[in-house]
Structure formats: structure tokens, C-alpha cells
Amino acid sequence: MAAPSTRPFTITIMDYSPDHCTEAEVADVRDCFPYRDSPGATWINICGLDDPDRLAALGEHFGVTSLTMDDILDTGRRPKFVDEGAYLFLSARMLDVADRLPEKIAAEQLDIIVGRGFLITFQERPGDVLDPVRDRLRKGGSRLRSRGADYLAYAILDALVDRYFQILELAGEKVELLEDDLLLHPKTAHLGQIHRYRRSMILLHRAVWPLREVIGQFERGDSALIDGTTVPFLHNLYTHIIQAAEEVDTYRDMLAGLQDLYLSSLSNRMNEVMKVLTVAATIFVPLTFITGVYGMNFRFMPELGWKWSYPLFWAGSVVLTGLMIAYFKRKKYL
Q1: How far is CA 64 from the centre of its chain?
Q2: All domains of the chain in start order, with CATH
Q3: Which of the four pLDDT bands, split at 50, 70 and 90, describes residue 4?
Q4: Would you say 112 and 220 are in contact if contact means Cβ atoms under 8 Å apart?
Q5: Region 221-243: what's the mean pLDDT?
Q6: Is the dihedral of CA 122, 126, 131, 135 positive or negative?
Q7: CB 38 within 8 A of CB 118
Q8: DSSP assignment of 120-158
Q9: Maximum Cα–Cα distance for the chain, whole Å?
């Protein structure tokens, strides 16, 4: 027998219509069964995927095939859209950031089943980015309260895309600051930052581009579960996800350029250091030559017996050094 899961398994229900919105948290999946035939619309959110038996019981009652349930349990799968006739199955990557740092992105799978009068979402762990959708449902007179489950699916996807844009905005600010700092004071630590931001962009790319296909198929679907009034909103969402995908690619290109800029900055600094060292070595070559000549142990060297030899040596060295420095400055080596 498998060990019991340590992750929480929670079920929250929001049943709504233009006139009411009721919320409940239940422990047994059987408490969700009456909502299949609710006169309004119902959103059932399942948190925790470590109890396949309870999930299978829920899926069986709502007419969800075993193949779809297998897809829900496979959290590493690519986002997809499937029209099963009796229901629509959509999946996406839900992203969030910690401490407003784009390099600390948390990702999890969010699966959505859209049926006639009900919508079921499956997420891996507690916490999500869907509170704005819940707040709209709680608000009387909102458009969301007067629409069906297909519009609720659009609202959930729209909340995911909005969070993508928030992460991209944070990433854009960080990348611009990194670029300015890199131009002025390139450091080894910058390379680590560039790699962390690039990993975040890769994670965003894997979430955004497949979702573009999912929303496109959702918009073009001819299912009876999609109301015609929802299609314009889906089209608008599709344009937003295209914009997000373009921004992801732009930041990926910028980070690749920053890595090249970092390497170029290091190369330029190395060249400057080598130039200074070369000039210094060149200045000391004639001085070393003179010192070497008069450091030889020959008995008959006329200058050795002259009392002004030592001051003359230093005077000549200073003059020679000054002339060489003036020459290098004239040639713009310094």
C-alpha cells in the first residue's frame, strides 16, 4: 500500500449566477456531485494531485475520460487543448514570483475542464494567481457572474497571462538595471545574474508559447460549449499572449547581448591592463640595459672612476623616462 500523501488535498466550490455567489470548502469529492446539475454555473477547484482514487471518482461522475485524468496527473506535460465533445480540456503553466525577483519563478501545472454549467480546475499545491477571478465572482453585477463556464475559463487564462506580463515587467526592470551596471562596472557576479535571468526567460518561454497554441485552438473551436459572445474575448486574449511571447523573445535576445557585452567588457579591461603593463615594461627596457651595462664586473670602465657618474646615471634615466612617456602620449598609447 502506498504511503499517504503529506500534501494537502482541498476542494473549494464557487456556485454562482447573476443573483448569488456561494462558496464552500469540502473534504469529500462526493460533495461536488450535486453541482453538476446546478441551475447556475459552478467552479470546482481541486488542490493536490496525490490522491488518484479521489480524482478518478470525481472524473467519473463528471464524465471525464481516464485519458484526460492521466494527463492531469502528468504534471510535466506540455500545455494542450482537447475538445472531448462533452467537455473541453485545457492545461497551462501557472507562474508566480517570490520577493518580486524574476529569477525566483515558481511554476506549476493548471488543468481546466470546461463542461456545461461547470468548470473544474486542478492545481498541484496551495496558492495561485486566481484571486482576482474569485473577487470578480464575489462582486455582484460583474460580467463574470452573468456568463457561463466558458467565460470563466477565459477569465482564468486571462489571469495567468496578466501574471506573465507582471513577471515580464519585473524582468525588464532588472535587465535594464543590469545593463546599466554592466556598462559602468562589469563584475564577475553579473555573469551569474545573466544566467539566472536567462533561465527565467526559458521558463517563461516554455509557458507562453504553448499557451498561445492552446488559446488559439480554444478561440477557433466550434464546440457548443463555447458561447459566441466569448469568442471576441478569446481573440483579445490571443493577441495578448502573442505580445507576451514577443516580449519573452526580446528579453532573451537582450540577455544574450548582455552576455556578449560582459565578455567584451572583460576583454577591453584586459587589453587596457596589458597596454599599461606593456608601456611600463617598455619604459624600463633601456633603464635595465643601462643598469646591466654598468653592473658588469670589468676593471677598466672609464665612468666608474668619475665622481659624477651616479648623479648622471639618474639624470639620464629620468630624462629618458620622460621622453618615452611624452612619446607614448603623443602616439596616444597612454
Answers
A1: 33
A2: 10-265 (3.30.460.20), 266-330 (1.20.58.340)
A3: very low
A4: no
A5: 91
A6: positive
A7: yes
A8: EEEESSS--S-HHHHHHHHSTT-HHHHS-HHHHHHHHHH
A9: 120
